[in-house]
């Protein structure tokens, strides 16, 4: 099974089951260098569960865990069966990983080449657009559904349609678990989520599948408007430093499911602006990126793509760069800077993943987690608000030693950047007066001794 999951991952970018595996973190087919994630706390803490083990220079992930008594492959097979019974035709894309409660789980995931990001839940909106995700999976994810109103913000989880919830309240009978289960029943009823399946696998682990309504009509026919529907006129549209407001976002009247993968990647995105030119601009963008990636990035810059897995596009626009790389065995985190036009809903419509970010601030990820960074005309706008040095140092932080950056910009910007990266001992080359390729080395400044 481990092998077939691996093949699935290779064949299609974000197929439904692969996405789940990515979420579960405990995939069974990976080994990472201990020195890259030198944390033993998790190994100690999870000793009984066979989740992660140290073996000499490596950390191994045998695939155990409280939730996965018979291994993660067994669990995935089980939910796969359950799900196909309910809905066999749809392909679910997009990946999201939450809660880093134990030491550096997100760092482990990234080290293993699994898409993951850090976010605060419970006080601020997650930095994703509304209705972005097709499916949310929460296996013992420790969201306190019954406490502090945190659970009430389930709808800020941005699920478009389904939640898979598997945790002890689903299948254990003690008082605390019962209380959580009752809170979850009341909450999901109040927000019109339907239970479409509740089941127990052979090891006794339970799972519930909830479905979000497809229109706002159920919300309106509730006896009590609690939690209230959001007022779209006054509600902030952005999810960057936006406090949670505890209301349910309305479902657009013209609400359709995107076309199946892989057509979804190139067909007209549902959230594309309705202006006359938008569709033409979108298709031209897809075509331009396909040409640039094929002719310049892959063939012409001397980058070794075989060793690249974790990629970030720092100014992703419609996600054309990621779309052009779809046939390579890598994944792209598409970042939409908060001061650029909001194209993130389009990126999610295409079945790609991304986040909002302000490159004048630090990024929510661990150091040395990306293999390749790409930016296209990011610096012109950025340098109006902060120093280019801030962005360059952040790139240096998140990039793995030996990793590569590709920057497309004006020659003035490229020269400034080349100077800064040179001072960090990167090797850089400029191609066609338009592209800079930078390679980060293992150099660090001498330690300051006092
Ligand atoms: C590219 O990277 C792969 C994997 O790290 C390596 O095996 C291969 O030799 C590299 N190719 C070149 C041309 O450097
Ligand atoms: C720069 O910012 C403006 C808005 O502040 C935006 O309209 C524009 O698309 C951004 N990008 C570039 C490359 O100018």
Automatic annotation (TrEMBL):
Chief localization class? membrane
Entry's EC annotation: 2.1.1.-
The way it spans or sits in the membrane comes to: Single-pass membrane protein; Single-pass type II membrane protein
Source taxonomy lineage? Eukaryota, Viridiplantae, Streptophyta, Embryophyta, Tracheophyta
Q: Which GO terms describe its biological process?
A: methylation
Q: Give the CC-aspect GO terms.
A: endosome; membrane; trans-Golgi network
Q: GO: which molecular function terms?
A: methyltransferase activity
Assigned keywords, A-Z: Glycoprotein, Membrane, Methyltransferase, Signal-anchor, Transferase, Transmembrane, Transmembrane helix
Organism for this UniProt entry: Mikania micrantha (bitter vine)
Alphabetical list of PANTHER family matching this protein: METHYLTRANSFERASE PMT22-RELATED (PTHR10108:SF887), SAM-DEPENDENT METHYLTRANSFERASE (PTHR10108)
Q: Where are the transmembrane segments?
A: 14-34
Q: Would you identify the family this protein belongs to, as annotated?
A: Belongs to the methyltransferase superfamily.
Please state where this protein is localized: Endomembrane system; Membrane
Superkingdom as given in the UniProt entry? Eukaryota
Name assigned to this protein: Methyltransferase
């Amino acid at each position: 099974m481990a092998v077939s999951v691996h093949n699935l991952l290779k064949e299609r970018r974000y197929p439904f089951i692969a996405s789940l595996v990515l979420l579960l973190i405990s995939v069974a087919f990976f080994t990472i260098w201990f020195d890259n994630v030198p944390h033993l706390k998790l190994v100690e803490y999870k000793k009984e569960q066979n989740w992660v083990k140290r073996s000499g220079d490596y950390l191994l992930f045998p695939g155990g865990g409280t939730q996965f008594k018979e291994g993660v492959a067994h669990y995935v097979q089980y939910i796969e069966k359950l799900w196909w019974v309910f809905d066999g035709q749809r392909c679910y894309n997009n990946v999201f990983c939450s809660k880093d409660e134990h030491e550096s789980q997100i760092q482990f995931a990234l080290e293993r080449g699994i898409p993951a990001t850090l976010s605060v839940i419970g006080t601020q909106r997650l930095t994703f657009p509304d209705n972005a995700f097709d499916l949310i999976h929460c296996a013992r994810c420790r969201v306190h559904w019954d406490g502090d109103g945190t659970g009430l913000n389930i709808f800020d989880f941005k699920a478009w349609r389904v939640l898979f919830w598997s945790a002890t309240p689903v299948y254990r009978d003690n008082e605390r678990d019962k209380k959580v289960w009752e809170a979850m029943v009341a909450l999901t009823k109040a927000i019109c989520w339907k239970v479409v399946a509740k089941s127990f696998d052979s090891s006794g682990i339970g799972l519930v599948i909830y479905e979000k309504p497809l229109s706002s009509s159920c919300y309106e026919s509730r006896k009590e408007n609690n939690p209230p529907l959001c007022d779209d006129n006054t509600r902030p549209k952005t999810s960057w430093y936006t406090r949670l407001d505890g209301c349910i976002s309305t479902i657009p009247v013209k609400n359709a499911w995107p076309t199946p993968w892989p057509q979804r990647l190139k067909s007209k995105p549902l959230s594309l602006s309705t202006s006359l030119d938008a569709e033409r601009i979108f298709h031209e963008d897809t075509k331009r990126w396909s040409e640039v990636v094929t002719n310049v990035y892959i063939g012409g810059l001397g980058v070794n793509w075989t060793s690249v897995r974790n990629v970030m596009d720092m100014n992703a626009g419609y996600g054309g760069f990621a779309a052009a790389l779809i046939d390579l065995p890598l994944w792209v985190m598409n970042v939409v800077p908060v001061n650029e036009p909001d194209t993130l809903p389009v990126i999610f419509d295409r079945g790609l993943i991304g986040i909002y970010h302000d490159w004048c601030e630090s990024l929510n990820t661990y150091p040395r987690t990306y293999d390749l960074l790409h930016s296209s005309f990011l610096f012109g706008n950025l340098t109006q608000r902060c120093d280019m040095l801030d962005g360059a140092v952040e790139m240096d932080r998140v990039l793995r030693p030996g990793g590569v950056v590709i920057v497309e910009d004006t020659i003035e910007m490229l020269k400034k950047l080349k100077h800064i990266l040179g001072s960090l001992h990167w090797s850089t080359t400029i191609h066609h007066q338009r592209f800079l390729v930078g390679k980060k080395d293992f150099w660090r400044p001498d330690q300051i001794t006092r």
